Amino acid sequence: MIEIFEWNRLLYNDLPESFLLEVIFRSTIMFTVLLLTLKVAGKRGVKQLSVFETVIIIALGSAAGDPMFYEEVGIIPPITVFLVIILLYRLVTWLTGKSKKFEEFIEGKTECIISEGKFSIATFKKESLAQDEFFSELRLKSIEHLGQVKNAFMETSGEISVFYYEDHDVKPGLPILPFLFKLKSKTIPAEGIYSCTFCGNTKSHKQGNALCSVCAKSEWVEAIATLRKT
């Protein structure tokens, strides 16, 4: 029979005080694992929050949750977890202020996704950003084709910031409207201006087949040059 307010059970769950050393070790290991896992997952998985902030939220939430529901979980170990996380938070914050490389590793850095109306292929692959998802983000900003976009950047928060061409500078570009993009084909039906569906490279082509000079892909769709409607 459980004795109510048995302090040793309530505070330590009958574990020795030396177990707190193991709690500190476990907390440090799990904090590091969470940080690295979310770092590998990329910005898109934690949009609006930095990877570091997300780790803090998950770690604190997990530490707070278990002692609320399970009688076998003592109160003191989770409190120790909180103290370790706070200390690690202070340490990481201090290190990001001291080292630019460490800051970039933890928070990431702003990357150029679109340059002069074409995808920055290396960056786009590195960010593991699905093309359909990216097109959706651009359509939400009233963009119809890449020829309207001078530059687009993936911010450290996961947000996409866009800089537009002035109306008189808009050029033909890859259409991102679904009903136009789905008309893509490996065969160019007639002479005209076409965009590579993979990288957005846009140029004049004759009827037939062609490889993109930028990415060596062979799927094309007719480019459009409409102005933005704001």
From TrEMBL:
Domain YetF C-terminal: 98-170
InterPro entries the UniProt entry points to: DUF421, UPF0702_alpha/beta_dom_sf
Pfam family, one: DUF421
Transmembrane spans: 19-38, 50-69, 75-92
Localization, UniProt: Cell membrane
Keywords tagged on the record: Cell membrane, Membrane, Transmembrane, Transmembrane helix
Topology in membrane: Multi-pass membrane protein
Coiled-coil intervals: none
Cellular component aspect of the GO annotation: plasma membrane
Family membership noted in the UniProt record: Belongs to the UPF0702 family.
Name of the protein in question: Uncharacterized membrane protein YcaP, DUF421 family
Species for this entry: Flavobacterium omnivorum
High-level lineage: Bacteria, Pseudomonadati, Bacteroidota, Flavobacteriia, Flavobacteriales
